[in-house]
Design goal:
Three copies of one chain form a homotrimer.
Chain A (H helix, E strand, L loop, with lengths): L4 E6 L7 H12 L4 E6 L7 H11 L8 E5 L10 E6 L2 E6 L5 H6 L2 E6 L15 H14 L23 E3 L2 E9 L5 E6 H7 L5 E5 L2 E4 L14 E5 L4 E6 L15 E6 L1
Parallel strand pairs in A: 1-2, 1-3, 3-5
Antiparallel strand pairs in A: 4-5, 4-6, 7-8, 8-9, 8-14, 9-13, 10-11, 10-14, 12-13
Chain lengths: ~260, ~260, ~260
């Protein structure tokens, strides 16, 4: 039996039995597979956040890892259940847009709609298909069941728009997509874009209209306590941090904020 | 050495070292066993909640799984420490009622009081017997130590009353036993009871006196935003949810609420 | 390939992708190693808390366990990255004082500065060296890479002062170092010190000036609800608890409080 890795991204939280049940179902089908929680703390039903977290993490896992993403506001409706091979990885979850970042950045080899109930639990509820459909499918996949056996090829999937930075007259206008535990505001402005447009040139960053000076190399460059700083974070995107303080506690700093880089 | 699975349900939280210590102790005794967290977020000392979460999850694990449940307000007192074989599973924890749901629904093969200190840590504290007694016992059990070796058979155990729905004159009166992360209010009214008494007949659900109409099949049937809906959830019990909103944010919706189903 | 255990203590939280990424990196290098979360809920950048939690947990793991501790406010600065063999365990993390308790209590066999980039990820960010340096080093270490291969021996490391109880004229004056999930206030007064100085003699405990009577043996000795109680906790230190209530909800009970034991 294959060992392999299944990662989990859900909005199930950790105070109920939902994530434990997912794992029990998987281990009942493949007792050898390794389970890794990425997070169960996706804001309830926030598909975009699930996609964002997936995008920041999936590539750091070994080739062949199965990424199970279950944030499922449409459970019980006619939304599809899908399984995808893209790049070196496999992805399983409801077809609701959570894989939008993957569609943009990876070579999509195959998408299959999960319809073969041989790989489901015997009874399918209308409220917890993570347990009834997605977990068993991931477990069978980890055992080597071929993609084709799960259902028909599927070409139309749900994609949401990923906000792109706008470039005009020496300005890059981005937006804060995520605020992490430390209060770092993570934007959609990639370092590669900045290098290409601004390079080593003079520049000025602002967020929500507030000037932050130029982009720093690391947190340790910030001199005064509580000064806001812009730098390229570990995901390769421009971030704004407030040293020793959660950025969300400062007025006007939050998700959705406009981050502007002006090339002078 | 046996592999096997040990699940963990505790109120230890995840910010201290308590759950890590449990796992360290277990792995020191059986490095091959697989550990699965169900939850460590049981409300402090809430035995009923532990029992409820256990009841919703234990059956989804492979046969032979050991369920370790340590919510232990009586630690250091004379409450017993027990180990039980019931149905296809093994259960370990303080004898304080957390297994009440299991006593009701499973064939109880054997209950043993943990008294053989050969299977304890060398020093037994008065405040953390999860570490000193329950974790090592679970680990030895997962290695195949026979139940008899842990202590004497035990016939009297603590059970708490599990509230049952009341049936009178075409009404089913239940109560909300748990509120999950999404704010779903989970009652004690089983779908099988409803099917038997009401079947496909006309009916009306109310919670805390507020009318909700009839029971829906899935969340997606709800038309207007924020409308409360009653449906049978993934555990087979009647639940009340408020679409796109945590039900607890609505006045009069909480644990302990009366849910009424009237057969018309 | 070695199996082994790597434990994780970080302040990364569980809502972002950071801890998942650490695990993905480790499993890519050693797919056989076992990963155990001690906690990811260290208060952001609280090095002392990380050291305290490590100190309460590391000894309960099997010999040879690798303890990875990444609370890293100085990431991107010139703080060192270190790997240490101490007693029966291995420790990896930034050199910022988080290992201060270990320096005090264990025989330090060897400390190595991590400088051989053969054991790093190819690209080293300035903001997430848990991913780029510490996780890969821990993974290679778990595969049996000798300590010497990671870098040069290192003799000067950062240590912070661990507050010690003061003893004068029949009094022991300690301080609350940590408040756990249950609201137990954990002091720095070890049971062995008390036994030596007070033994079975008459004594009186107070916290923040409030008298608590003598030290009890277990929570169950407390008669009235909500009475504060002093006892020796599972870590071997004097703790103050308020039965059935979080001690922090009582005025004048918190981290930093003075706990006094007077020998009469």
């Amino acid at each position: 039996m294959e060992r392999g890795v299944i990662t989990l991204i859900t909005d199930f939280g950790t105070k109920d039995s939902y994530t434990g049940v997912l794992k029990g179902v998987i281990l009942g089908i493949n007792p050898m597979v390794r389970l890794v929680d990425i997070t169960h703390e996706i804001s309830p039903q926030d598909i975009f956040e699930a996609g964002f977290i997936l995008n920041n993490s999936y590539k750091f896992f070994p080739e062949g890892t199965i990424h199970l993403v279950v944030v499922d506001p449409g459970v019980g409706s006619k939304r599809k259940a899908i399984l995808m091979k893209a790049g070196d990885y496999l992805f399983i979850g409801p077809d609701n847009g959570a894989f939008s970042f993957i569609y943009e950045s990876e070579r999509i080899d195959k998408i299959v709609e999960l319809i073969n109930n041989k790989y489901f639990l015997p009874f399918i509820s209308n409220t917890f298909q993570g347990r009834d459909i997605f977990a068993p499918a991931a477990a069978y996949l980890s055992r080597g069941t071929p993609l084709e056996d799960f259902g028909e090829s599927c070409n139309e999937v749900v994609k949401f728009d990923i906000p792109k930075p706008e470039i005009k007259k020496g300005e890059i206008n981005g937006v804060v997509l995520h605020v992490d535990r430390f209060g770092n505001l993570i934007s959609n402005i990639p370092e590669v874009l900045f290098r290409k447009l601004v390079g080593k040139g003079k520049h000025e960053v602002s967020i929500g209209g507030k000037a932050l000076g130029n982009i720093k190399v690391s947190y340790s460059e910030v001199k005064e306590e509580e000064e806001a700083v812009a730098l390229f974070g570990s995901t390769g995107y421009l971030e704004v941090s407030v040293r020793d303080q959660d950025a969300r506690e400062r007025p006007n700093l939050n998700k959705g904020n406009i981050i502007k880089v002006v090339h002078k």
